[in-house]
Amino acid sequence: MNFPIELYMFCxxxxxxxxxxxxxxxxxxxxxxxxxxxFDMVGLLNSEVRESRERVRxxxxxxxxxxxxxxxxxxxxxxxxxxTGNYFDLAIAIGILRCLxxxxxxxxxxxxxxxxxxxxxxxxxxxxxLAIVAKAKELGFKNCIVPKENEEEGAVVSGINVYGVDSxxxxxxxxxEGFKRKPLHKDIGDIYEAGALSEKTFDFAEVYGNExxxxxxxxxxxxxxxxxxxxxxxxGKSMIASRISTILPKPDIKECIEIxxxxxxxxxxxxxxxxxxxxxxxxxxxxxxxALVGGGVIPKVGEVTLAHNGVLFLDELAEFKPDTxxxxxxxxxxxxxxxxxxxxxxxxxxxxxxxxxxNPCKCGYxxxxxxxxxxxxxxxxxxxxxxxPILDRIDITVNIEPIKIEEIGLKNNNRSSAxxxxxxxxxxxxxxxxxxxxxxxxxxxTKEIEAxxxxxxxxxxxxxxxxNKLGLSIRAYYKIIRVARTIADIxxxxxxxxxxMSEAISYRMVR
Length: 511
Fold this sequence. Notes:
The protein is an alpha/beta fold. Helices cover 37% and strands 16% of the residues. It has 21 helices and 16 strands. The strands form 5 sheets. It has a 5-stranded parallel β-sheet. The chain has a 4-stranded mixed β-sheet with strand order 1-2-4-3. The chain is elongated and about 85 Å long. The mean pLDDT is 89.
């Protein structure tokens, strides 16, 4: 196709990128002017964005459109934000076609365009579409043009027209037709109800014995408390951890959207367009600090954020690098990760339930001297790899003993995940009704503890004695109260009594 003699010399197309997990609107400015033939791109671009020049040029050529021997300049603004990702190809190509009058429209101010181009002009799938479309609606856009493979993901956002396209030609046709094609729309409520909310391959009914840790798991899940299990190899720590997510209440629609946005931005959705289950992440102990909490020159989400609204399991906690473990201090306390770079401040959500497991020593069998040959100093050195500040932030610590032979096969004594989930849901309902903000007990502030955690005199006296005898920190003092409040909620007691407090204190004495 030959280009017309008369050209629009300049046009602007709306596109998008991400700053952490927040969508950022990017203006794609296209200018075609006289001068030596060239194709330049400016605007603080990463290498993958600069490479889009060749993709766009070749894709346009393969649509039988001849680029004029002109000076083509692409500017991505705002210029003080580094542009990353594969979001801009389609917007750049549409901008050039607009200047060539192949796309016949005076304005695309109410339309946002994202997508990666292949060399033959096909539009390929990208990540973060749900977050992009939701933010586009918030910014007042009427239309979104996205890759066909992402259409269903974006179509759950009501109040904005989402058009999925397979090729550059199809995108140009939709614009030229004045967006007359019926956009896809899916009701999020119907998808939620029809979704596979409970593909539970694990069940606590398969766990023999360990009634104490099952009780601790219920308490931890009910109040969203962090849990540490200490025990020898083969005692069932990993088995129990993998089943904790099965006793958490199913996520509501708002939580599902939040989980899906994060995994979409990280490119973890694969063939699914929506996530209905709480995430369960179990990174290996060789993971780097930036991979765990997020980071990089342009910070990206880490395992902690991928576990948002779910469970983060750290097996062999003492084998993690000490600085990697210590990077969890703020996230598990504050529920978010803040990373500062010259390019800006990145905030990642991190409302996770941390579940960790460790052996008591390097060989794993201390204090069984028939099997453990570690010296007392070696045992101390091994456990000291987990810093005091991290241990202080863990609400519940329990010892796990090896399963006795007579406990194996006693299925009648095993409580199922469904039974445990009902207890957790009941406890969480009490928390929501008591606290106007719907906070978990683990997140209660000092003022909220004074308002909601009423203690009987015997319970208060026992806590003060434990504070002095165990040399607790003020953080540990309040964590015990929060755990005791959860225990009281499970038993539907308005006041924290001595029994509740005693159990809560016992989860600190294991250390």
